[in-house]
Amino acid sequence: MGALQKLNVVILGAGSIGCYLGGYLQSAGVPVTFIGRERVKWDLDMKGMTLTHYKRRPVHIARDQISYQLDYQPLVTADVILVCVKSQDTANVADTIAQIAPAQALIVSFQNGVSNADALRQVTARQGTARPTLAAIVPFNVTPSGRGEYHCGTEGDLIIEASDDVRLKTLVKAFKKSGIGVNTTKEIVNYQWGKLIINLNNALNALSGGTLRQGLSQKSYRRVCAAMMEEALNICRGAGIVPKSFSKTTVEKSIKVMRLPNVLFGPVMNNIIKIDENARSSMLDDLEAGKASEVEYLQGEIVRLSQQTAQFAPINLTILEQTKKAFAEAHSPRMSGDDLAALVGV
């Protein structure tokens, strides 16, 4: 039995991202157990799992080959735990991991925001044994496209915090074998802040209620996005943080691209950014599904950082409050780019 077949991986929080990552690992020959919600289990039990990508061929896993559980018992024998729950659920799952997972289990946090890996370490340490925990970044969007179907409509390679742990090396090998690119780095925190700044667009997408392409096709929408990102970048710099880019371009260049006129931005979106017609943010999916919002771990992080460092973040604060209002009302206000520009005054 090879190293891939010996690695017992548990996906904790197997929604869109969790199913996508776990499904690809299983396609590479890794034993994977998914833990998640009954609704997802029902779909997979009925249809199996289909993973689509805007460039790659679909991957299908038959329903009788999927181990999807509703309880946490699979954690008892886990070698590697990929945490894919929403940020607001991190503390709860950390308690569960601390109670039943092996003390040596490797935890990898594939979550938005900048504080989840630390939270996982702290909670498990308080419970007795701090599990080895690595932060990771998922740079692409995954959206449910049907029952048991998950579609990736944007590009990017996974980034995982560097470690000498042999299980990480095996995990990286498995992802690459499956077709998903992955890199490791010792500067994961700076990359996380860079990802957070890019992810600020998630809230705009939730407020606009359409696809990412529909929003970004509007110059006024991009103007708001650029102003919001620039404000966040300046807040980070004022706090001594140097956000790094996980893609082919820097955050600074991304801001400049957002400010291009439509005639120039169109070719950029088609040839460089590469967002397909169906891509949406997970925050819009959560809004439409009646789930809680992660905006406190995106715009909220920028606002809190500004307060801690005696700076001001009026644009991110306004988007934070408007997004919280949308989730409280359980629907997108479907704001146009002009609406958003008027809201934040740019």
Could you tell me the CATH topology label of the largest domain.
Rossmann fold
CATH superfamily of the largest domain: NAD(P)-binding Rossmann-like Domain
How far is the first residue's CA from the last residue's CA? 60 Å
Q: Uncertain regions: pLDDT < 50 for 5+ in a row? A: none
The fraction of residues assigned to DSSP E strands is: 5-15%
Tell me about the largest β-sheet.
8 strands, mixed
**CATH-scheme architecture of the largest domain:** 3-Layer(aba) Sandwich
**N-to-C series of helices and strands:** HEHEHEEEEHEHEEEEHEHHHHHHHHHH
Rounded to the nearest angstrom, the radius of gyration is 20 Å
Specify the number of helices: 16
Task: Describe what this molecule looks like in 3D.
The chain is of the alpha/beta class and about 350 residues long. The protein folds into 2 domains: about 180 residues, 3-Layer(aba) Sandwich (Rossmann fold), CATH 3.40.50; about 150 residues, N-(1-d-carboxylethyl)-l-norvaline Dehydrogenase, domain 2, CATH 1.10.1040.10. Helix content is about 50%, strand content about 15%. It contains 16 helices and 12 strands. An 8-stranded mixed beta sheet has the order 5-2-1-6-7-8-11-12, with helices on both faces. The longest helix has 20 residues. The protein starts with a helix and ends with a helix.
